[in-house]
């Protein structure tokens, strides 16, 4: 028996000794290296957050930037901050803390208490409170600070902020703060681009976090020889867009007015530099405010992501192909009304029963489906026309540097489809594809690549990392053809027969363009026996315009889907479209200092802002008012601290310029536009909440009150009771074109 016990003892001794020798030799226990484990246990590591890059417009106006927010921590053991001289670092009474903190961060008292007690039981130095304790505003921080809760601290972090609200939101997109919580209750936050430029250039914008690590003793006190290591954060790169804040603002305001009056199902608009392909403005409705993401009616950037049947705007490219092939004779006559070939069962029709025998030029002016169908079938041939569609890149995406682009489809299998494609039915496209193709018309035959990112810049050094330049991507037509197309499209506006006559003409500039009234497919079979919806409002009304005609500087496309028209007073669908086009195109050309080409009007020039910051308020005000600028001085100070315009920036006549003094006070903003209130908020660094749209009718900070950074301002807005249609020139009956064909024509 004693021998057995002795044997067992020897075996146990050898086993333990062997295990000890193994651990001593390898330094490893169950796959864990003891040295690494010890270093980790006695090393504190803190993350240094990288600043996400800022997004600017072409003139340096901030469109998206990081903004300070705060995260709540409950400190459970004061040794965690042993080197700090602050008092009340350690949490006192868990129940009192929970009762005081919970209502401030929108949690139940028991939820807060449960997290605190979990931390205490597990000997944590601190605990956090999940999403409710993240991304707190300056105002909420001040509320919590005012309670003086022992052990509660707020850590500063960044949140993405969009100073202009809904402005260009489908282009800029939005980035969202995400929170990862591990099984120990510790959280890590980061900002990730979800849509738009924020998503497309997330890798350049995001930067790289740094860290600080040092060794400590068991009481969490930093050792004398702490082996401190610092890895500096690398901030994200800045992105400069081609978008022009002023042109985009004019577009946004115009579309908002149309949205308020006509309540359309959808709207799209894009303005592009005709020479370079730089997109100066782009917007959709419905839109969204990236600062207040809730229920979003439309995530899609319809300008690039939603193909549709374009209607008669496609006739621009049918005309261009016919001219390039030498088969278009503007004076040749044909019989309008309907057109029948042996290969289709039923004839296709013009939108009007007939104009009798007319010239091909008049057919283009009147937007005759028969005219372009005959040009394709009888003059140039369907395969030749298809070659031109491909040359204009209608068979592929535009390649714009935005996420989510979808190309349209050339529907070209049956004879009827080859005819209807000539006037934009059946075949689908996107607004950006139309604008890209139109650049060949405006640019002497050279088709340019649309783009929205101008350059990527190092946020620290200002060095340009990546720069985008204009690029010619095709030559579908010649310079001579482009000129003839522009001359013909001008008559759509100037001729009494034109569908754009008295509707799309500008005061100071000549326009070449084409109207469109596209049918909408009846996907829900609301009208049995018809492939398309019926009714005067069930169309996509559009216009593709270029100005000035002889040397176009801008291309603009506008579409309005199913507007609520005043049919009792014979209001046409071109009323909301022309309001947007005329307002944006005319003002944009003036802003860009493009000389008017109509002799009947004096040119309107922009004003160049002088150097104002650092000078006296009185001198600055006098300099601007002498040039006809509306000036609003913010506060009673004598020195100019900030202004809403930078030195050498171009200012539109009657534009409001804000001068911030060294003693700022809240102005009376009643009657101000949302754009001006956003400028004010940005300059004063206010925490702005916007309710409604239009013009301000209420403000939460009384006029004359001293204001400081991060003060909360609530501003209510309402739309003026004005009629857009009253500002649109009277239209002749012939302007009510419709791009239609009979359902029986479809094989």
Topology overview:
Layout: H1 2-26, E1 28-29, E2 32-33, H2 34-41, E3 43-48, E4 55-56, E5 62-75, H3 94-105, H4 109-121, E6 126-128, H5 138-147, E7 152-161, H6 169-172, E8 175-181, E9 187-193, H7 196-200, H8 202-206, E10 210-215, E11 229-231, E12 238-241, H9 245-262, E13 266-273, E14 279-285, H10 302-305, H11 315-324, E15 333-335, E16 338-339, E17 348-349, E18 357-359, H12 360-365, H13 369-380, H14 382-391, H15 415-420, H16 431-442, E19 447-448, E20 453-457, E21 464-467, E22 472-474, H17 479-494, E23 512-519, E24 539-547, E25 554-561, H18 574-591, E26 607-608, H19 617-626, E27 630-634, E28 640-643, E29 650-651, E30 656-661, H20 674-684, E31 687-691, E32 695-699, E33 712-718
Parallel strand pairs: 4-12, 27-30, 31-33
Antiparallel strand pairs: 1-2, 3-10, 4-5, 5-6, 5-7, 8-9, 10-11, 12-20, 13-14, 13-25, 15-18, 16-17, 19-22, 20-21, 23-24, 24-25, 26-29, 28-30, 32-33
Helix pairs in contact: 3-4, 3-5, 9-18, 11-13, 11-17
GO biological process, one term: cell wall organization
Protein name: serine-type D-Ala-D-Ala carboxypeptidase
GO molecular function: penicillin binding; serine-type D-Ala-D-Ala carboxypeptidase activity
Characterization of this structure:
This protein has 747 residues and is α+β, with helices and mostly antiparallel strands. It has four domains: 2-41, no CATH class; 45-241, Penicillin-binding protein 2a (Domain 2) (Alpha-Beta Complex), CATH 3.90.1310; 245-287 and 300-591, Beta-lactamase, CATH 3.40.710.10; 607-725, Trypsin Inhibitor V, Chain A. Helices cover 29% and strands 22% of the residues. A hairpin with a 5-residue loop joins strand 8 (175-181) and strand 9. It is globular, with a radius of gyration of 33 Å. The N and C termini lie far apart (102 Å). The relative contact order is 0.10.
């Amino acid at each position: 028996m004693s021998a057995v016990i002795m044997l067992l003892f020897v075996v146990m001794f050898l086993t333990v000794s062997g295990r000890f020798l193994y651990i001593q030799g390898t330094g490893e226990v169950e796959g864990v290296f003891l040295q690494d484990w010890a270093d980790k246990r006695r090393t504190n590591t803190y993350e240094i957050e990288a600043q996400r890059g800022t997004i600017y417009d072409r003139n340096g106006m901030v469109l998206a930037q990081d903004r300070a927010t705060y995260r709540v921590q409950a400190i459970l053991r004061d040794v965690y901050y042993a080197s700090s001289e602050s008092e009340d670092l350690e949490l006192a009474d868990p129940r009192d803390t929970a009762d005081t903190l919970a209502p401030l961060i929108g949690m139940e008292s028991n939820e807060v208490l449960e997290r605190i007690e979990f931390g205490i039981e597990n000997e944590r130095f601190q605990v956090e409170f999940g999403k409710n304790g993240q991304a707190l505003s300056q105002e909420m921080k001040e509320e919590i600070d005012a309670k003086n809760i022992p052990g509660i601290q707020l850590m500063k972090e960044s949140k993405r902020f969009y100073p202009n609200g809904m402005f260009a939101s489908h282009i800029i997109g939005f980035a969202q703060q995400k929170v990862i919580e591990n099984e120990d209750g510790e959280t890590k936050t980061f900002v990730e681009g979800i849509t738009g430029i924020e998503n497309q250039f997330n890798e350049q914008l995001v930067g790289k976090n740094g860290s600080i690590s040092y060794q400590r003793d068991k009481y969490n006190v930093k050792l004398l020889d702490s082996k401190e290591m610092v890895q500096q954060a690398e901030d994200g790169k800045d992105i400069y867009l081609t978008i022009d804040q002023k042109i985009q603002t004019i577009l946004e305001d115009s579309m908002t007015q149309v949205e308020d009056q006509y309540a359309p199902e959808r709207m799209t608009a894009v303005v592009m530099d005709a020479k370079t392909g730089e997109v100066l403005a782009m917007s959709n409705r419905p839109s969204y405010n990236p600062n207040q993401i809730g229920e979003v009616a439309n995530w899609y950037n319809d300008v690039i992501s939603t193909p549709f049947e374009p209607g008669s705007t496609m006739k621009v490219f049918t005309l261009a192909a016919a001219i390039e092939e030498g088969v278009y004779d503007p004076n040749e006559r044909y019989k309008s009304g309907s057109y029948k070939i042996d290969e289709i069962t039923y004839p296709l029709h013009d939108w009007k029963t007939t104009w009798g025998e007319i010239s091909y030029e008049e057919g283009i002016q009147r937007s005759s489906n028969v005219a372009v169908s005959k040009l394709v079938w009888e003059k140039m041939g369907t395969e030749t026309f298809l070659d031109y569609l491909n040359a204009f890149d209608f068979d592929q995406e535009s390649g714009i540097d935005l996420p989510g682009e979808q190309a349209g489809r050339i529907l070209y299998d049956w004879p009827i489809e080859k005819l209807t494609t000539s006037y934009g039915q059946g075949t689908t496209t996107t607004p950006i594809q139309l604008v890209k193709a139109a650049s060949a018309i405006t640019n002497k035959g050279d088709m340019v690549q649309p783009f929205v990112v101008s350059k990527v810049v190092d946020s620290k050094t200002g060095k340009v990392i990546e720069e985008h330049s204009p690029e010619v991507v095709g030559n579908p037509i010649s310079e001579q053809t482009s000129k003839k197309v522009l001359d013909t499209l001008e008559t759509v506006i100037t001729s009494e027969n034109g569908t754009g006559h008295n509707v799309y003409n500008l005061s100071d500039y000549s326009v070449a363009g084409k109207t469109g009234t596209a049918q909408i497919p009846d996907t829900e079979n609301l009208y049995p026996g018809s492939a398309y919806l019926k009714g005067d409002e069930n169309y996509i009304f559009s216009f593709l315009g270029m100005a000035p005609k002889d040397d176009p500087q801008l291309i603009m496309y506008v579409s309005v889907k199913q507007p609520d028209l005043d049919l009792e007073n014979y209001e046409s669908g071109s009323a909301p479209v022309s309001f947007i086009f005329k307002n944006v195109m005319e003002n944009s050309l003036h802003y860009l200092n493009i000389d008017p080409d109509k002799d009947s009007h004096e040119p309107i020039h922009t004003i160049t802002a002088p150097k104002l910051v650092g000078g006296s308020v009185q001198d600055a005000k006098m300099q601007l008012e002498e040039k006809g600028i509306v000036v609003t001085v913010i506060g009673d100070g004598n020195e100019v601290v900030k202004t809403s315009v930078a030195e050498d920036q171009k200012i539109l006549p009657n534009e409001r310029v804000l001068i911030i003094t060294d003693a700022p006070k809240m102005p009376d903003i009643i009657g101000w536009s949302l754009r001006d209130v956003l400028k004010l908020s940005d300059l004063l660094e206010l925490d702005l909440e916007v309710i409604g749209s239009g013009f301000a009718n209420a403000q939460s900070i009384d006029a004359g009150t001293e204001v400081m950074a991060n003060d909360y301002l609530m501003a209510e807005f309402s739309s003026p009771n004005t009629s857009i249609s009253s500002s649109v020139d009277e239209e002749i009956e012939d302007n009510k074109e419709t791009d239609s064909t009979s359902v029986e024509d479809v094989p």
